[in-house]
Every structure is written in C-alpha cells, then in structure tokens.
Write a structure and sequence with these properties.
400 residues, alpha+beta, Beta-Lactamase, Helix Hairpins, Heat Shock Protein 90, 3 domains, 6-stranded antiparallel β-sheet, 5-stranded mixed β-sheet, 10 helices
C-alpha cells in the first residue's frame, strides 16, 4: 500500500510539473483530475472543474457559441463524439472558461481495462496561442502583400490602358484624315462613304469606354459580369478593324483565316482583345524596327484552331524575320524589350501572359529563323473544376 501511495504521489508530481495541460476523465467524460497547467489555462480552481464534463471547457472551434466568443464557424460534432469516432490526436479547439478563451491542440489517450472497456481518458492540452498569433500576423502580411500586388498590377494596367487607347485613337485619326482628304479632293463625301467611317469611329469610342470601364472595375475589385459567352471570331474582327487602316498605310497585309467550327468560349472578351492587340502591335513593330526588315510582301496572319470540347487556339504570326533565339526565354519578363526604350514599355507580352494565365490558358512563342515569329494563344472553352483545368493544362503543355 505504501509503495502504491508513493507511486501515486510521484505520478502526481510529474503531472503537476508538465507544462502542457493534463486532464484525467472517467469513462463518461467527467473531469477527475486537472494539473496546474490546465487550471492556469482555464483560470480556475480544481473544485470548480471537478466532476464536470470536459465539453463544458474544451470545445471545438466550430462550437464557440458563448458570449464574448466569435461564432463565425459552422456546426461540428462535440469532442467526445469525435473521440467515439476514433479521432484521438491533434484536434484543434479552444479551452474556455468564463471570459478565458485559449486556442489549444488536444490529444486523447483512452485507458482500457483488460476487457477492452474504456476506464479513463487522459487529455493532453497544448497551448497554441503564440502559433495562432503568428498565423494572424502572417495572414495580415499576406493581405498587405496582395494589396501591394494589386496596386502594382493597377499601375501596370494603367500603362497598358494608355497603350490600348492609343490604337483606337490612331485609327480614328486616320479615318478623319481620310475624310478630310476626300473633302479637299471632291468638296463633298457621299453618304455611302461617310456612314461607314462614322460607324467605325463610334465603335472605337465605345471600345475606349469599355477599356476604361474595365480598368475602373479592376480598381474597385469588382468581378461582376467579367465572364461571358465569347465569339472568338468577333473578337478577332474587332482587333482587325482597329489595325486595318494603319497596317494598310504601312504596306502590311493583315490576313485572317476563320474556321467555321470554332466554338464560343466562356471568358472576358475585352481581355482576349487586349492580348491580340498586343500581339498584332508586336508584329507590326517587328516590321518597323527590325534592322533587316523586308520592304515587300509583309504579312501578319491571324488564324484559329480548336481541340473539340477542350480549348480554342489563336495564332498570330508574321514574316518580319523572327525574334533572336538568345532572348526568347526573356520575352515574358516585365519591361524587357528589344526596341528603343522610349518607344516601348516592355510590358505588353508580360500582360499577355498574365491575362492568358488568369483565363486558365497558355501562350507560347515559336520562331522560324530568318522568316518570322508565331504566337499561339490557347484558351479553355469553359471554366471547369480545378482538377479538370489541371488536366487540360497538362495536355496543353504536352501537345505544345
């Protein structure tokens, strides 16, 4: 008997010296013992907790429906129910008493008799307040980082906005010049000639309004009506109309090859249009600024392809000589450009890649030495589950 008392005393001394909280429960879940660390965490005396159910003090984070405690989680089984279902270790919950709320990590250790029946349950409680505080700071840092990224993206988009608006403005200027030239030559313009120009100018004004509205929505972090059913052929025609007069004046032929089987896709048409504008602009500039530029037979070709039920493909290719292979891996880098700095921001292709990535697609570049460059834009037909998108992307990368 004396030996047992000594063993019991030693066990209690050990339990009292442990920094983690320790509860010993009977088979019903009532507290029969609580060490000093557990009582300190609760802010209670042993006589205040003895004989009470552990669920009165140790509750799952999704069960905090008490005054002064947040209740923004959904309902969840009690801890004892989890124990009965065989969940014993690393349960994240709260130790609660009056106004004391401490986040803890809990482990249950059932002690069974020779007959296999639970006689006692040892509950070890580890205070994770510091970890939770660090997680909170990390989340705050992540929110700040996201905000900074958004502001940086907004700055880049502002440059892109100016870049985009310049195209319809230039096209409008060319149309007005054409009208003025005809007025000088003939003194009047027929309705047949005037109305198409007015319609084109009106369309370009609407295009600029849409671009500005898209920027405003982005700045306001609004995602309403971002995705819609898109006719790729119409998007291509819109881009062609913006470049038609400019390329004609530069003696560059713009060829469009339509496929009748191209399906509609779910996307943001303005973003796709922005990608094509940047790619056609790059092709145009390749003819203008290439030191070995060809003077005749200059072509930019836009064509489409499809993988039924999965994605559509848009190709933008030119015969302006091609990109130097030594810089091919760097063309997606922000502010990288092979043109004169004052003529190019160096973010056009970066924006293209970011946009296509955001739509769940991919963009690739190929070079025909001495001939030209070809960009391939691959866009999913519809926004699917993350698993399906991953499968599609894997197939896209393998097919090239």
């Amino acid at each position: 008997m004396e030996g047992r008392i000594k063993d019991y005393t030693t066990t209690v001394l050990i339990l009292e010296s442990i920094t983690d909280g320790v509860f010993i429960l009977n088979s019903d879940g009532r507290i029969e013992y609580a060490n000093k660390s557990s009582l300190d965490l609760l802010g209670a005396r042993f006589d205040e907790v003895k004989g009470k159910f552990i669920d009165e003090f140790l509750v799952d984070s999704t069960e905090l429906n008490r005054p002064g405690v947040s209740e923004d989680e959904e309902e969840c089984p009690s801890l004892l129910e989890k124990l009965r279902n065989g969940i014993f270790r690393n349960i994240e919950c709260y130790l609660v008493n009056k106004q004391n709320v401490t986040p803890v990590l809990v482990t249950f250790n059932p002690i069974k008799s020779k007959k296999g029946e639970v006689e006692y349950i040892i509950v070890i409680v580890n205070d994770i307040s510091d970890i939770k505080a660090m997680e909170k700071e990390l989340k705050k840092s992540q929110v700040i980082a996201v905000s900074r990224d958004r502001l940086r993206a907004l700055g880049e988009l502002t440059v892109g906005l100016i870049h985009q608006i310049s195209h319809p403005l230039n096209a409008m200027h060319l149309r007005l010049d054409m009208l003025k030239s005809r007025l000088k030559e003939k003194g009047k313009i027929s309705t047949d000639k005037l109305l198409p120009c007015i319609k084109d100018i009106d369309n370009m004004i609407n295009k600029m309004v849409n671009i500005i509205n898209s920027m405003r929505l982005f700045a306001q972090q609004t995602e309403d009506n971002v995705l819609e059913i898109v006719n790729i052929q119409e998007v291509i025609e819109n881009v062609v109309s913006m470049f038609m007069y400019e390329l004609k004046n530069l003696d560059i032929e713009l060829i469009v090859e339509h496929r009748k089987d191209i399906p509609y896709i779910l996307a943001n048409p303005l973003l796709i249009e922005q990608v094509l504008i940047n790619l056609v602009s790059n092709a145009r500039d390749a003819f203008i600024y290439n030191p070995k530029k060809r003077e005749r037979d200059r072509r930019i070709r836009i064509r489409t392809g499809v993988n039924p039920g999965k994605w559509v493909e848009i190709y933008v290719e030119d015969n302006a000589g091609g990109i130097d292979r030594s810089v091919l891996d760097r063309i997606w880098e922000p502010f990288f450009t092979t043109k004169e700095i004052d003529r190019n921001s160096g973010i056009g292709l970066t924006m293209c890649k970011n946009i296509v990535d955001s739509l769940g697609g991919n963009i690739k570049v190929g070079v025909r030495d001495g001939e030209g460059t070809i960009f391939k834009v691959i866009l999913p037909i519809e926004q699917k589950s993350e698993t399906q998108e991953l499968r599609n992307l894997i197939e896209i990368f393998h097919r090239g």
